[in-house]
């Protein structure tokens, strides 16, 4: 599958850059007004916004680095940097919640006695609420569109800024109206919610870094999409993992026996195209084709002599005296017969003649250590597979071979 070209990450990089600039403006506004008015809450909010500058800058750097092309040291690319930055932002959200809790408790114990420059302070708080909400909405929208958890978390962090500015506004207004300690009580309640959000986001990032299966919806969509492709009989062992904004996947598909190589390649190509349409965040999908396992399996074993189940297994395919052909179900032998090898007396192409016989007998599995090039080519698009003889008796060898390919 064609790798993503990095355009989504570029959009996220732009969003985080705007966030840095806007937060710096808010820091100056709140810090200057807080300094002149002596409003501790507004100064604390300015410091909080200054921390947001570093948060958005970290996201910017993370998205910038994650656009680097894969190399020998990082063959899957640098997308995990974006997840590491996301975890950092999640931790900052938790720290912010703890900080608001601490400041709120202190404020409850020591409420302000008077408010100076109330009108200017309230105006700056209102501007901060509106601007913080706008930038938070923008970052979350871009983050969802490009699948960037770092930008999403930074956007949610900005929503925390909205709450913080609302608390500052309510605190100033409440103190102005004579409700001493009001800001502190509201702050404690909101900070608990903030800490909870930060813990949830951090948990998601840690699970992503550990390759946990956290995107089950995408997995189910991929399964249904693959099964809709003509020629696919089944799908199993579907695995996906997130790396930054992208998903890497692998799966096994079951195909009918005897499909030519070009047909199989066409099915795999169609799977990649359809999956990319329904799950655009897929960066790479590895598809492993397999033949369909069946209830009844016909097993063929080359024999050096003909003594029924007491026969000796031949180590040479073309020179075998005969072949035991057994019909099995779930590893149990239903019936068997022994047919003579028509190629054993030939001077050349003995293996080809024996392979033609077994192909006409509709066998599924051949017990043999190694096949020569001619028979192997003849069986390449036909057999379920070949297996070496495993077992202390002919019967045990047949049962073991059958179990490997039974449904």
TrEMBL record:
Domain Cation efflux protein transmembrane: 17-210
Keywords, ordered alphabetically: Membrane, Transmembrane, Transmembrane helix, Transport
Source superkingdom: Archaea
Keyword Acyltransferase belongs to the record: no
Region forming the signal peptide: none
Compartment annotation: Membrane
Membrane protein topology class: Multi-pass membrane protein
Membrane-spanning residues: 20-36, 42-63, 84-109, 115-138, 159-176, 182-199
Entry's Gene Ontology molecular function annotations: monoatomic cation transmembrane transporter activity
Listed InterPro entries: Cation_efflux, Cation_efflux_CTD, Cation_efflux_CTD_sf, Cation_efflux_TM, Cation_efflux_TMD_sf, CDF_Transporter, Di-Nase_FeMo-co_biosynth, DiNase_FeMo-co_biosyn_sf
Span of domain Cation efflux protein cytoplasmic: 215-290
CDD domains in UniProt: MTH1175
Boundaries of every Dinitrogenase iron-molybdenum cofactor biosynthesis domain copy: 310-400
A Gene Ontology cellular-component term: membrane
Record carries keyword Acyltransferase: no
PANTHER family, per database record: MITOCHONDRIAL METAL TRANSPORTER 1-RELATED
Protein family: Belongs to the cation diffusion facilitator (CDF) transporter (TC 2.A.4) family.
This protein's name: Cation transporter
Taxonomic placement: Archaea, Methanobacteriati, Methanobacteriota, Methanomada group, Methanobacteria
């Amino acid at each position: 599958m064609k790798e993503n070209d990095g355009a989504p990450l570029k959009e996220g990089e732009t969003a985080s850059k705007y966030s840095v600039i806007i937060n710096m403006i808010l820091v100056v506004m709140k810090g200057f007004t807080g300094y002149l008015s002596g409003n501790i809450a507004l100064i604390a909010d300015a410091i909080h916004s200054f921390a947001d500058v570093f948060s958005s800058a970290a996201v910017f750097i993370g998205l910038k680095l994650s656009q680097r092309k894969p190399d020998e040291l990082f063959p899957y690319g640098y997308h995990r940097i974006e997840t590491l930055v996301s975890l950092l932002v999640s931790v900052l959200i938790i720290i912010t919640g703890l900080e608001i809790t601490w400041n709120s408790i202190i404020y409850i114990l020591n409420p302000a006695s008077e408010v100076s420059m109330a009108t200017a302070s309230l105006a700056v708080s209102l501007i901060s609420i509106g601007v913080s909400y706008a930038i938070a909405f923008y970052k979350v929208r871009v983050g969802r569109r490009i699948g960037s958890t770092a930008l999403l978390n930074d956007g949610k962090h900005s929503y925390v800024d909205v709450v913080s500015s609302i608390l500052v506004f309510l605190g100033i207004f409440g103190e102005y109206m004579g409700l001493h300690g009001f800001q502190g009580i509201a702050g404690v309640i909101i900070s608990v919610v903030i800490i909870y959000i930060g813990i949830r986001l951090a948990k998601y990032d840690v699970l992503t870094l550990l390759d946990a299966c956290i995107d089950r919806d995408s997995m189910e969509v991929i399964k249904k999409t693959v099964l809709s492709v003509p020629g696919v009989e089944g799908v199993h062992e579907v695995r996906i993992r997130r790396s930054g904004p992208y998903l890497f996947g692998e799966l096994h598909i079951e195909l009918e026996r005897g499909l030519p190589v070009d047909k199989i390649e066409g099915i795999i190509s169609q799977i990649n195209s359809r999956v990319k349409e329904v799950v655009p965040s897929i960066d790479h999908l590895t598809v492993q084709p397999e033949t369909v396992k069946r209830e009844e399996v016909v097993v063929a074993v080359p024999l050096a002599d003909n003594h029924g189940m007491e026969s000796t297994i031949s180590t040479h395919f073309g020179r075998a005296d005969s072949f035991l052909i057994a019909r099995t179900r779930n590893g149990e032998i239903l019936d068997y017969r022994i047919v003579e090898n028509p190629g054993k007396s030939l001077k050349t192409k003995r293996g080809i003649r024996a392979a033609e016989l077994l192909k006409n007998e509709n066998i599924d599995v051949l017990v043999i250590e190694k096949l020569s090039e001619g028979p192997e080519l003849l069986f390449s698009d036909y057999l379920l597979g070949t297996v070496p003889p495993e077992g202390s008796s002919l019967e045990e060898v047949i049962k073991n071979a059958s179990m490997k390919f039974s449904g």
